[in-house]
């Protein structure tokens, strides 16, 4: 069933943003601190059954200089540097195996797959990157409330910083030219944040993004992962305003208002995990060139293969 506002209302939905006064300073400081650590990207060629792409096991320095894993796949039979799509993971997923990432090389692009620190044990795609950050305090299962007592300690500060550094690592490879970012759900949230934090991207492919209009999301859906926030607030009733004060530094609507990267969004009108009004809140605030594909009878899976074709077409426009 449809789970949110009618589509005409969604297209006009432009809620007020709860934005910390030091939002820009917070992220400028965060990225400057990360860049105090040398990026030191390592691209180790690995044997693979993939015959159409050269495969590299990647390690680079993310937030705090912590080692972050990834994969780089470059089309084997394309001469010279090629455009690259940096791909981010959905909630609970990790980088998986190289065989999982053949789409972009099959259409002539490299793909740089960033592992998500501390995730990848959710049963669907394994991860290989620890999150060594200490002192995060009480939290619900999952990462949504990890460090939520302090924006500096919050999990997504580390993850979004890793994601910007992943773009920098991809750009450092001699076989990579222009760079785009892409992801769905949590990966869409990351791509949205990076579209504002990393200059010079060719485009952003942002599917059913999570972490947008967050407080509203907790009020209209009981689905996970937003349910983690509700559970935390049930336990810590005196901290509700503080919780959402922290989350304002990581809300996609605030990144959207700063983004200049050309973007293609997608939304499913039967999506109870990232309800469409949360997606449209970010889309309607998005400051850069933008378009959106809406799938009325789809949920969190979005447009599936039909939308994959839309993304390829959009990538061709931006990446060549």
Strand content: 15-25%
Report the helical percentage. Answer: 25-40%
Mean pLDDT: 96
Strand order of the largest sheet: 1-2-3-5-4-6-7-8-9
Shape field? globular
CATH topology: Rossmann fold
Query: What's the number of structural domains?
Result: 1
Query: If helices are DSSP runs of H or I spanning 4 or more residues, what is the number of helices?
Result: 11
**Termini distance?**
39 Å
Low-confidence stretches: none
Task: Give a short summary of the structure.
The chain has 320 residues and is of the alpha/beta class. The protein has eleven helices and nine strands. Substrate binds at residue 91.
Structure commentary:
It is a single chain. By secondary structure, this protein is of the alpha/beta class. It has a single domain (7-319), classed as 3-Layer(aba) Sandwich (Rossmann fold). The chain is 34% helix and 18% strand. It has a nine-stranded mixed beta sheet with strand order 1-2-3-5-4-6-7-8-9, with helices on both faces. The chain is globular and about 55 Å long. InterPro entries: AB_hydrolase_fold (IPR029058), AXE1_dom (IPR008391), CE7 (IPR039069).
